[in-house]
Amino acid sequence: MIFIFTNANASFGDWFSSFSKRATPVVEKPIVKTIDKPVKRPLVNINTEELVKILDNDPSVLLIDVRAPFEIKHTGTIKRGQNVNIIRGWIETQIADYAKTKDTPIVVYCGRNIRSPLAARTLMELGYTNVKNYKEGFLTWKQELNPVKVSDYEPNNILYRKPIEVIENVYTAVGATQPGTYENSNHNNNLSFIVTTDGVLVFNAGGSYLVAKAMHEQIKQVTKQRVKYVVLENSQGHAILGANYWKQQGAIIIAHKAADKEIAKKGKTIYLRALNRQKDKLIDTVVVRPDVAFDKQFDLTMGNTKIELMHIGASHSPDDIQLWLAAEKLLMSGDTAFNERMLPIFPHTDIAAWIKTWDKIEALRPEVVIPGHGAPTDLATVTKFTKDYLSYMLGEVEKILENDGDLVDAYNIDQSAYRDWGTYRELHQRNAARIFRQMEFN
To answer: What are phi and psi of 254, to 5 degrees?
Structure first.
């Protein structure tokens, strides 16, 4: 026999009363406590004007585009430095990679305000306390002609952009202002050409055989003149890896002697690094050395066009060269000058020498500059993106060293004024660290 106690307050004798007369147990009314449900905070929605104001005033804001990458590829995304892409379904697992604290200011958006409210509420449920939803969405942002970042201007062409005419007979295909990726096909620098009455000169071979071939197809639409010379601005992969295509077309490859030395020494490494990103897009690409290597200056006269190739001093890389059209006052600066994006500091970059080299750039007084990266522009603009940035960073690191600061202080240099520049997120702290290490022992 099993006894089940249903009322702990019943007396012991109650359980052994007559079987013919079952005792009715006394059941006490349970005590029920009411638990208050947490009050849901309302979702804060903002419009375009409010978003611009927030982004302008607060560098710490995290702006999250929750659309899928294929949507962004075809329509673009907001071109502001705080912008990142986290797909709606991955917001729970990836947010901690970007928002280091629960009070990080966050603005979420999508195309038409369908997914972003859901993502914003998810973040609020995860405990993020400063979340807003950009209700007008990317399509409104784009329609109102606000800055838009496009991942590929020519989705049906391996070139990131097709060439545009800068001045008469001078063209450039502006590359992506971002690191080389599979999506941009390693076309993240400027590929330029000059049409003369005695052939074509190409400045930069391109980042692969296929990129060079695509560039050649564009040149053929402009002129029937053959490509006679291809100049390599330095030994980086996006400048040299298309050279074997041009050699097949009978062009003479020209570079600085330091670039030739670097290609001979590290050509295989340069190729393998690009292959890791470009994969099948590197088909038929073979590293070749230049036919002509010069030191300080190399002059070419092509028909009525006088072209000067120069190595005016150390800058971004020891092997950087420039092309000068004196009559046209046009400078192809190579990586000595940047526009639209943050420049990279390499271990071999001599920052102080680069600033001194800039004096020689200014002495030329170019009216048009085709920089190594970014759209063609004027001297004042490339000065802002190059010399002025370098000078600021040198000054900030000097302050740290004077106060016996360390590498952590260098990482924390305020570079928020540059947050809207391309490659800011990838390079700003790395640049600070490399400048600090160089100056620490000098």
So the answer is: -125, 140
